[in-house]
Each structure stands twice: as structure tokens, then as C-alpha cells.
């Protein structure tokens, strides 16, 4: 394409909230064969909401929530925030029903416990110590790697959550599995329509996620994607992009997280969700400022139409 064509396309993009960082990516966008979507925060709203707190240990429900929320209080992960929010509401209503005490406002976190040695374990969950005992909050992999036994009835509870497209977060305290949190993250409203539109344009949509297989499959089915890669560790997303490129096909990646930045850089066209992390935005060729998936189509369409017309 001529410099003029690129300038025009870049201008049209900007007007539509699609920031294009270079002419090369703009040219490549018209030949995209695969679009790889991150799940959490890209296909889904990324506004995870805790729906369920199931205690398996006979522990008091409020105590369980206090422990889990305290463990997640330093986490920046959407799942951690969802758990904290659920516990905050529980304690607020608990306070209201307790007529002896004056109740605090619902923004209060004064019930949180002191946490030491916190670490976020990407693709697994979080680990820290409360009262000198280790607490683990995360997926099966985290439990397995720490030798925590997940009994059959607990496993079944998690499977049921996953089959309804929720994520089950397991909680172990002092080496015992004490409960499970269920977390829902609804699809973006436009997601299914955009996937259908891409297919009509001859583009193959793919989903990648660090989440478990069952939740991933349930979400993929809802949105209309058949090609799914789940339980992918952060570095694995870029490998998936590279393997799709092997046959000479051009691959776009759409993502929002720190985890997605290697894949955004590896892709022929990296598209970052505008509401995403700075690192993702930096690694991408395109920034979708409105954070709407419709703009994945806008971007490809713009490249196809504008560059073909002004030649
Ligand atoms: P995605 O690729 O979908 O954005 P991540 O790689 O961030 O997912 O996380 C993968 C999985 O690791 C989550 O689905 C969850 O099971 C677990 N996990 C990660 N961070 C946390 C956390 N702060 N609390 C609980 N579980 C977590
Ligand atoms: Mg994400």
C-alpha cells in the first residue's frame, strides 16, 4: 500500500477508536487466517463475580470467607478481587443482623487478617501464611503441587461449577482442603456476534486460557468457538501463536493481560484491549480503545477495504 493509503486507514481507524501503531501491521491485518482470543477479560467481561462459597470443613462460613479474602487481599488478579468483594458483602450483612454491635459501612475491610509471605503464582493462584499456617487459594494444579488431597465430593462440586462455565477456586488451610469458591465471569455482550462475523469473513477463531478445560469448553461453546486451548501457562500462549503460524498462515492475537504480552508480540497482528494492562498495550500493534470486540472486525475490515480501494 502507498503511504497515503496507510495514512488514510490509520485516520479512519483512529476515528473508530482503533489505534494502529504501524503500516506493516495494517497490511498484515488483511491476510489474517486465525484470530486467537484470550478468555478472561477479552471474551469475557473480566468482571469476575463470586457466586458461591462452599465450606467443606465444618468451619464457620464467616471465618472461611475471612481467611480466603485475607489471602487474596494483596492479589491483583480479577479472581482475587471477586473473592474480596464477596467476603466484604458477607461481613456487611453479618454486621447488620448483629444488633448488639454498631455496624460498620460496607466499604470496611477491618475484618481482614494479617498475612505474611504472600506470593502470587501465575496460572495457579496465591499462597501465604495466616496465624503461622499456610493458606493456598487456586486451582487443582496448586493443590496437587502442594500435596493437598481433594476428596471426591469436593471434586464433584468443582466439576459442577465448571460445567456451568464457572471457575472453581479451591482453598486449603494448614494442609486441609477447607472449601471452594465459585466464580462467574459473563461473556461480553458482543462476543458471540463477533465470532460469527469473523467466521463469515473466512477467519478461524481460537480461544486460549490459563483456566481449566471444563470451564474453557463451556465458555467456548457459548461463544461459538470450537478450537480451544486451556490450562495454558503464561509462556504457552506465544507457543500456540507460533504453531498456528507454521503453515505460513498469518495469526492475530487479542488479549488484555500481562500474560498475553508475549503472544501479542509473537502474533503477526497483536491487538490489545484498551482497558487492559499497559504491558499488553505496549506489546500490541493495534489498541482497541473502546474495548469492544466489534473492533477486531473493524480492524480487519479496515485493512481489507481501505488498502484495496486506494492502491
Ligand atoms: P487467563 O489466561 O484465563 O487470564 P490466568 O493464567 O490468569 O487465566 O489464571 C489461570 C488460573 O489460575 C485461574 O483460572 C485460577 O484457577 C488460577 N488463579 C490465578 N490467579 C488466582 C488468584 N489470585 N486466586 C485464585 N486463583 C487464581
Ligand atoms: Mg485475560
Automatic annotation (TrEMBL):
It is found in: Membrane. It comes from the Eukaryota. It comes from Salvia splendens. Belongs to the cation transport ATPase (P-type) (TC 3.A.3) family. Type IB subfamily. The lineage of its organism: Eukaryota, Viridiplantae, Streptophyta, Embryophyta, Tracheophyta. The chain holds residues 617 to 927 of 997 of the full protein. This is HMA domain-containing protein.
Amino acid at each position: 500500500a502507498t503511504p497515503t493509503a496507510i495514512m488514510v486507514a490509520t485516520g479512519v481507524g483512529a476515528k473508530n477508536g482503533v489505534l494502529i501503531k504501524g503500516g506493516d501491521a495494517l497490511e498484515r491485518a488483511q491476510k489474517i487466517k486465525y484470530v486467537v482470543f484470550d478468555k478472561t477479560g477479552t471474551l469475557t467481561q473480566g468482571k469476575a463475580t463470586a457466586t458461591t462459597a462452599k465450606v467443606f470443613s465444618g468451619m464457620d462460613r464467616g471465618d472461611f470467607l475471612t481467611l480466603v479474602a485475607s489471602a487474596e487481599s494483596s492479589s491483583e488478579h480479577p479472581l482475587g478481587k471477586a473473592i474480596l468483594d464477596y467476603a466484604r458483602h458477607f461481613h456487611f450483612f453479618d454486621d447488620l443482623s448483629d444488633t448488639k454491635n454498631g455496624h460498620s459501612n460496607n466499604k470496611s475491610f477491618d475484618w481482614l487478617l494479617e498475612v505474611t509471605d504472600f506470593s502470587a503464582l501465575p496460572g495457579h493462584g496465591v499462597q501465604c501464611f495466616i496465624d503461622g499456617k499456610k493458606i493456598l487459594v487456586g486451582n487443582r494444579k496448586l493443590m496437587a503441587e502442594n500435596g493437598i488431597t481433594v476428596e471426591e465430593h469436593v471434586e464433584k462440586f468443582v466439576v459442577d461449577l465448571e460445567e456451568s462455565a464457572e471457575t472453581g477456586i479451591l482453598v486449603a488451610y494448614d494442609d486441609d482442603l477447607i472449601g471452594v469458591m465459585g466464580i462467574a465471569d459473563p461473556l461480553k455482550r458482543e462476543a458471540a456476534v463477533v465470532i460469527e462475523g469473523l467466521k463469515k469473513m473466512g477467519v478461524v477463531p481460537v480461544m486460549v486460557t490459563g483456566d481449566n478445560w471444563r470451564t474453557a469448553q463451556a465458555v467456548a461453546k457459548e461463544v461459538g468457538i470450537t478450537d480451544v486451548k486451556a490450562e495454558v501457562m503464561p509462556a504457552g500462549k506465544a507457543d500456540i501463536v507460533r504453531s498456528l503460524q507454521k503453515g505460513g498462515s498469518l495469526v492475530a492475537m487479542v488479549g488484555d493481560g500481562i500474560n498475553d504480552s508475549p503472544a501479542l508480540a509473537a502474533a503477526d497482528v497483536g491487538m490489545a484491549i484498551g482497558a487492559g494492562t499497559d504491558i499488553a498495550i505496549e506489546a500490541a500493534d493495534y489498541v482497541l480503545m473502546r474495548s469492544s470486540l466489534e473492533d477486531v472486525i473493524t480492524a480487519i475490515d479496515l485493512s481489507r477495504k481501505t488498502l484495496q480501494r486506494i492502491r
